[in-house]
Design goal:
The protein is mainly alpha-helical. It has one domain. Helix 1 packs antiparallel against helix 8, helix 3 runs antiparallel to helix 4 and helix 3 packs antiparallel against helix 7. The longest helix is centred in the first third of the chain and has 43 residues. The protein is rod-shaped and about 90 Å long. It starts with a helix and ends with a helix. The mean pLDDT is 87.
């Protein structure tokens, strides 16, 4: 199973790293002396720097908000699994339903978490979740107590369903291809602009280039990393599902 983060990061580093290395090779090998008038004219076009900075900030903030949303939904899904198991204890003859919930929790841990590395959801967890809904729909309501507990269980399962949908939608492709293309093109334009506005003092120019290129690369790499919320350097902790599985197992087997 492929790793979505490694694929995206490799593509990004190739698209950005190779032109950057070529830039340093060209500027080191060829003594280019910028036209003072050209340098002054291009230096005045700060609108590109401002627009590109705003664009990077918007992309970063958007993905951070998306990351925190998915993080909250992941925690809520794990909590709902545990809550549903506890509420099922209030239902009469809910043995099959409890086992169906336990099987779903196992499938999430054993299959879904692995599939998320490639930005997908597992078929095993989907089948287990469908079976869980089938079992809850087969429940016989024999008393007012059962009816009350049944509605509470249905509420928790609905929350799980919503969280699963969000997890599937946000596991990959949070950064639109057009936005990614603009990030790359904007970086290329910055390389060209920096080349055309070089200073005569090579040490100062090189220090400027290293700082600017370095921070820009870090920002873009962070954006690409946040695009895969379940895998990468910055990723959502999924141990809550393991904890939920332990609790559901204890509740199901001890009753």
């Amino acid at each position: 199973m492929h790793n979505l983060f490694i694929e995206n990061m490799t593509t990004t580093l190739l698209l950005l790293g190779i032109p950057t290395l070529l830039y340093f090779i060209v500027t080191n090998k060829f003594a280019y002396k910028a036209d003072p008038q050209l340098s002054e004219a291009l230096a005045n076009f700060n609108i590109f720097n401002s627009l590109y900075s705003i664009f990077l900030s918007m992309a970063l903030i958007t993905l951070l908000v998306n990351f925190n949303t998915v993080k909250d939904d992941t925690r809520k899904e794990a909590e709902s699994i545990t809550s549903a198991a506890r509420l099922m204890s209030g239902l009469t003859n809910a043995g099959k339903l409890k086992l169906a919930l336990l099987e779903y929790a196992k499938s999430v841990v054993n299959y879904d978490l692995k599939a998320l590395k490639s930005g997908n959801m597992s078929n095993e967890a989907l089948l287990a979740f469908n079976n869980l809904w089938d079992e809850v729909n087969k429940m016989q309501i024999n008393s007012t107590k059962d009816e009350y507990a049944y509605h509470l269980v249905m509420g928790e399962l609905s929350d799980i369903s919503k969280s699963r949908l969000n997890r599937r939608m946000k596991a990959k492709d949070n950064l639109h291809p057009l936005v990614f293309s603009l990030l790359i093109i904007g970086y290329y334009i910055m390389l060209i602009k920096t080349y055309l506005t070089r200073l005569e003092n090579k040490r100062i120019q090189r220090a400027y280039e290293i700082c600017v290129f370095g921070i820009m690369l870090l920002v873009i790499v962070t954006i690409v990393d946040l695009n895969t919320p379940f895998v990468g350097i910055v990723n959502i902790e999924t141990s809550s599902f393991n904890i939920a599985l332990e609790r559901v197992t204890q509740i199901t087997l001890n009753q």
